[in-house]
Amino acid sequence: PSAVSPGLMWLRQGEGGGSLRHTCEQGDGLSRYGWLMHDGENFGVQEIRDGDLFLKTEFVKRPGGEHGGDWSWRITARMEGAGGPAPLLSLFFYIATDGQGTLEPHLENRTRLAAVTGTTEELGHFTLTFLRPTSESGEDPKYASYSYLEAASPGLHHLTEVVRSSLSNRFVFAAPGKPRRRFFAVDTFRGLPGSAGEPPRGRLLLHQVTLEPPATVEVTFESGSVVDRPRQLAGGALSAALARHMAAFEQRFEETFGLGRKGFPPPQRRFAQAALSDMLGGMGYFHGRSLVQSPLQERPVPAPEAALFTAVPSRSFFPRGFLWDEGFHQLLLARWDPALSREVIAHWLDLMNVEGWIPREQILGEEARAKVPPEFLLQHSETANPPTLLLALQRLLPSAPLPYLRRLFPRLCAWYDWYNRTQAGTLPLTFRWRGRDPQLERFLNPKTLASGLDDYPRASHPSTEERHLDLRCWMALASRVLGEVAERLGEPAGSYREMERALSDNGLLDQLHWAQELGAFADYGNHSTAVGLRWQRVAPAAPGRPPPAPQLVREVREAPRPRFVGALGYVSLFPLLLQLLRPDSPRLPAMLDAMRSERQLWTPFGLRSLARDSPLYMKHNTQHDPPYWRGPIWVNINYLALQALHGYASANGPQQERAAEIYRELRHNLMANLYRQYTESGFLWEQYSDSTGRGQGCHPFTGWSALVVLVMAEDY
């Protein structure tokens, strides 16, 4: 909760001080960055390309002692491309406390921070040593200029500004035999604007190394509780440890996913390794309070303090926990490291309140809040999210230790009961997402953030009569998994199995959700097919004042009535995606036809989210709200589609061969496009264009887009 935080910033020296880099920001425009290898525990290798600057960060952890052991970090920097003298590069290594712990600097010549000794509750006594830079080979010393900053820390989320506001260009780089050059270095920190009188949160010690690339810099962390340390983990010892870990990673990756045996060439195997590694490298520990709005209270209140260890969708854009994303993340991580995955799932279930509700977005602590627009901070206690953690738990179930399942089971029961109690529809065995956007005049179709599918078309006029197909299918899955867990523990499973049978009944599913006019399964609700956005002039606030800009508002040209919602897309596929349809279902051919139809969901790059012939295909929801789940290709749903097709292709039934054929084509299209976009752009993306296949949305998105690894492995 209040751990000591070490980190790195860098600055390419130039006019105006250049651009200080620190946290992952999409707006920085880096051409490529990400972990190429990361085992989630002991080592990692990351490459960063910032213009023509190439940085490689590598770390190794050496377990030992009573506080986790030692770790060492190596930064390699070089310029690529144009010749001429290399611009100066400054590396800023820092360590900061955040609420507890002590730090003691050890200086050489008053400007070089050679080491820091310290103590914290979690780490005991430790020594952090900043070794002198060397040539890229690590053999020859490298000339550098050193600067030092000691400052009160106003909080980890403000460290970038602390350093930026401390920079001065009065310093001169004077390498022997070379022209003297002025550069920016940390000087004096006089406080951030508006922070006068606020007590410091901790202490910051910073070591700036300014040099001319190429160069290598190493940092070692040595735990005071390690006895009989073999030697410092630096230089040749660090290189040897990295080589051992890289070889072990390659072997474990092949044993786990078998891509070499499947004939994938080395570049494609490295792509898959990077996808897994970037998910592992983006994992974080968060601590703080959610801001919660309950129907029982007038004003939002802070929830109790909570801790969360989780993967994140995107290091740059979504560096926090999302409930429905995490279930997809854990499908991959459960294959790589089941114990790690079990720990993450337990953390999420520990966020449950006494009613059984888990907030769908976890914005814990000031660092997380600093990355979230204010309108998204509030979590509403009646709003659900798909229980995708159960997908991962189902995968972990055969090998999960019984004591672990016993601790989980009461939480799973409470979560399941919460869904049944709060998300039930008006008719028996129907379900409705709560929390649809109430501002009808603003949106072409009010959003359903709870579903995870945000702007996917639902009934045009939210009402208590709605029946949401995807939620009903999620509840069938939940009933199945709860039944499996109960049986494994010897607990009564009858009620869960009975609910599973009822929700999987194909006849009842037909009765409640088959839209004959659409030829597909659909939501049901109070719906108008004649809704559009039109510009509306706004009257001036007062006579003589200029009028505000026109606004796009919703226009309903036909009164809504209870009916099926005419939108064919991902929601329509849910009975197939979660394999509720029997292999001999008479509805299966229509589902496969919709998937394979280029007029509807099929593209050369994967399945689009909404059919091309759907009324809201690629339509903006507001003036500034472009289509999100209204056409683009999303990897998580394509993974579920491949999993389902693989299942139907393995089951006896009239559609077995057809399912196998579509499976082969879809798998090839999805893999080929994600790999092509990665090689061209350097990133996995949040979503992909259904017309060009290009990556779009935020990047890097090594959340559920990393499921491409399981697709390559055919691991469902």
Automatic annotation (TrEMBL):
Matches recorded under InterPro entries: 6-hairpin_glycosidase_sf, 6hp_glycosidase-like_sf, Glyco_hydro_63_C, Glyco_hydro_63N, Glyco_hydro_63N_sf, Glycoside_hydrolase_63
Limits of the Glycosyl hydrolase family 63 N-terminal domain: 3-144
Enzyme class name: hydrolase
Topology term for the membrane: Single-pass type II membrane protein
GO cellular component: endoplasmic reticulum membrane
Keyword terms: Endoplasmic reticulum, Glycoprotein, Glycosidase, Hydrolase, Membrane, Signal-anchor, Transmembrane, Transmembrane helix
Single annotated GO MF: Glc3Man9GlcNAc2 oligosaccharide glucosidase activity
Catalytic activity reported: N(4)-(alpha-D-Glc-(1->2)-alpha-D-Glc-(1->3)-alpha-D-Glc-(1->3)-alpha-D-Man-(1->2)-alpha-D-Man-(1->2)-alpha-D-Man-(1->3)-[alpha-D-Man-(1->2)-alpha-D-Man-(1->3)-[alpha-D-Man-(1->2)-alpha-D-Man-(1->6)]-alpha-D-Man-(1->6)]-beta-D-Man-(1->4)-beta-D-GlcNAc-(1->4)-beta-D-GlcNAc)-L-asparaginyl-[protein] + H2O = N(4)-(alpha-D-Glc-(1->3)-alpha-D-Glc-(1->3)-alpha-D-Man-(1->2)-alpha-D-Man-(1->2)-alpha-D-Man-(1->3)-[alpha-D-Man-(1->2)-alpha-D-Man-(1->3)-[alpha-D-Man-(1->2)-alpha-D-Man-(1->6)]-alpha-D-Man-(1->6)]-beta-D-Man-(1->4)-beta-D-GlcNAc-(1->4)-beta-D-GlcNAc)-L-asparaginyl-[protein] + beta-D-glucose
Catalytic activity, EC: 3.2.1.106
Any GO BP annotation: protein N-linked glycosylation
Domain Glycosyl hydrolase family 63 C-terminal, residue spans: 236-714
Subcellular location: Endoplasmic reticulum membrane
UniProt pathway annotation: Glycan metabolism; N-glycan degradation
Protein family membership: Belongs to the glycosyl hydrolase 63 family.
Primary role: Cleaves the distal alpha 1,2-linked glucose residue from the Glc(3)Man(9)GlcNAc(2) oligosaccharide precursor.
Protein name per UniProt: Mannosyl-oligosaccharide glucosidase
Organism this protein belongs to: Himantopus himantopus (Black-winged stilt)
